[in-house]
Specification:
Bound molecules: S-adenosylmethionine
Number of helices: 6
CATH class: Alpha Beta
CATH superfamily: Vaccinia Virus protein VP39
CATH architecture: 3-Layer(aba) Sandwich
Number of strands: 8
Order of helices and strands: HHEHEHEEHEHEEE
Strand content: 15-25%
Number of domains: 1
Distance between the termini: 35 Å
CATH topology: Rossmann fold
Radius of gyration: 16 Å
Helix content: 25-40%
């Protein structure tokens, strides 16, 4: 991701999408294989981009919603969903996540490389939205970008800071070791945690 201020729609229009894996993340596949997502779950993916994970979830019978501010990304996602025949219960929604209010809370939220694009103040607002978007006891599949760099985006999601942001009074953190997911290019990686929303 470039360091200057981001115009996401322009990035998609110019094909400047170096973050895109071209397919669903290994983290999602591992969590699916481990049965982390119950059958027929409603799943929200904020900042989904082209939504490879939305498509994978939809193919497996989940009700997946991909949310993104970039119209081109959502148009491509909805086209892919219709091609896979998975558009009946899954969809892409073009909206600003800071204004998005779903009609119903979700069983699962999958967070991948959206949080790391937000500054500290935006991250605090985002945590409140994530909590509000989930049903009580529902789960947040959380991938934390590890860059080791100062500044961003992408911002380094320092674990100490993340445990403050996702406060244990509002989120149960797992005791087991996180997933370690390499980024497609370079030395960066993500740490994957399953958090449970508390009331
Ligand atoms: C680094 S990209 C990651 C995309 C996708 N999660 C992936 O892993 O390929 C960040 C995404 O967040 C979206 N985004 C950034 N700010 C947003 C906002 N305020 N509301 C909705 N989407 C936003 C961008 O359009 C972009 O698609």
């Amino acid at each position: 991701m470039k360091e200057e201020s981001l115009n996401w729609e322009e990035r998609y229009q110019e094909g400047d999408t170096g973050w895109d894996r071209g397919g669903p993340s290994a983290a999602l596949m591992q969590w699916l294989d481990a049965g982390a997502i119950s059958e027929g779950s409603s799943v929200l993916i904020p900042g989904c981009g082209y939504g490879h994970e939305v498509i994978e979830l939809a193919k497996r019978g989940h009700k997946a919603t991909g949310l993104d501010i970039a119209p081109s990304a959502i148009k491509a996602l909805n086209h892919s969903l219709s091609e896979t025949g998975a558009s009946a219960s899954s969809l892409g929604v073009c909206a600003d996540l800071f204004e998005y209010e779903p009609a119903q809370p979700f069983d699962v939220v999958y967070e991948q490389t959206c949080l790391c694009t937000l500054n500290a103040k935006q991250s605090q607002d985002y945590e409140k939205s994530l909590h509000r978007w989930l049903k009580e006891d529902a789960i947040l599949l959380l991938l934390l970008m590890q860059t080791g760099d100062a500044g961003g985006p992408p911002f380094h999601c320092d674990l100490k800071d993340m445990r403050q942001l996702f406060d244990p009074s509002r989120w149960s953190w797992p005791t087991k070791a996180p997933l370690l997911i390499p980024r497609p290019k370079g030395p960066r990686f993500e740490l994957g945690f399953i958090l449970q929303r508390k009331s």
